[in-house]
Amino acid sequence: MISLYQLHEGIMPFHKLGQLCEVTKNELLTLTQQNPTFDTKRCSRNEILLQQGQVQRHGFFIHSGKLVSSVINETGELRHKEFYFAGELCILFAEWIQKSPSFYQISALDDAKIVLVPLAELEQANLRALKLKLLEQQLLFKEAKEAFLLLNTLEQRYCFLRDERPHWVNGLANYDLANYLGVTPQGLSRLKSRVNKAQATTTKR
Predict the structure, then answer these.
(1) Phi, psi at residue 47, to the nearest 5°?
(2) Taking Cα atoms as reference points, which of 124, 177, 182, 117 lies closest to residue 154?
(3) How far is it, in rounded angstroms, from Cα 72 to Cα 77?
(4) Could you tell me which of 160, 163, 139, 161 has the C-alpha nearest to residue 13?
(5) pLDDT tens by residue, 76-94
(6) Which of 58, 156, 76, 199 is nearest to 116 (CA)?
(7) Cβ-Cβ contacts under 8 Å for 123 (sequence gap 6 or more)
C-alpha cells in the first residue's frame, strides 16, 4: 500500500500545494487590506457564521483563531468536514460554484477575528486570476485529502498530522481531531499513547 509519506515525497503535489497556499494567502491579505469596506467580525467560540441550508454570500478570511465546516447528519450527530486556520479563506467551494444552499455549517472553533470577503467581489474580472488560484488550490487539496483518507491507516493519518501538520495536533481539541479522523476521542487518546510509547522505545535504542 502506498502511504501518505510516499505521496508526500512526490507522487502527490504537496510541495506545489504548499507554494500555492503561500501565494494565495499573501494575495488574499492584500485584497482585504486594499478593501477597508469589507466587514471585520470578531466571533466567539461555537458561534455559527453560516447555517446549514443558508446561501453562502461571503468567504471568511481568518486573521486569528480557527473555523470549522461541519454537517449535522440524520441522527443529529455533528461531523467535521474541514478546519480552517489563520491566513486561510474559508469557502464552501461546491456551493460557491453551483450557487446552491450550504450543505454544511461554518462555525468558530475558538474566538476568532475574520474579514467577510463578498463572493461577488471574487467574480470580478480583475480578480479572475485569484479565483483560479483558489480553485486550483482546492483541487490539489482535495486530491491530497482523498489519498490521505483512503490510502492510510488511522495510525498513519495521525502520524502524518503530527509530523507534517503539528498546528493541527497542537491546536485542535482531542474531540475535534478525533471527529475529523473518524474515531472516538478515547480511541484517539489510546492511539496517541501507543504511538508515543513506540517512539520512546525506538529513541532509547
Answers:
(1) -70, 135
(2) 182
(3) 5
(4) 139
(5) 889 999 999 999 999 999 9
(6) 58
(7) 131
Q: What CA–CA distance (Å, rounded) separates 113 from 49?
A: 12
pLDDT tens sequence across 18-43: 555 777 888 999 999 999 999 999 99
Put simply, whether the predicted model's pTM sits higher than 0.70 gets the answer yes
Place of cell 510509547: 197
Phi, then psi, of 45 in degrees rounded to 5: -55, 135
Q: Which residues have C-beta within 8 Å of that of residue 3, sequence separation ≥ 6?
A: 151, 152, 156
Q: Which ranges of the chain does DSSP label H, i.e. alpha helix?
A: 4-6, 14-34, 93-98, 128-150, 154-164, 166-171, 174-181, 185-204
Dihedral class, residue 65 (left if φ above 0, else alpha if ψ from -120 to 50, else beta): left
CB atoms within 10 A of CB 144: 17
Sheet hosting strand 40-43, strand order edge to edge: 40-43, 112-118, 58-64, 89-90
The rounded radius of gyration (Å) of the Cα atoms in the chain is 18
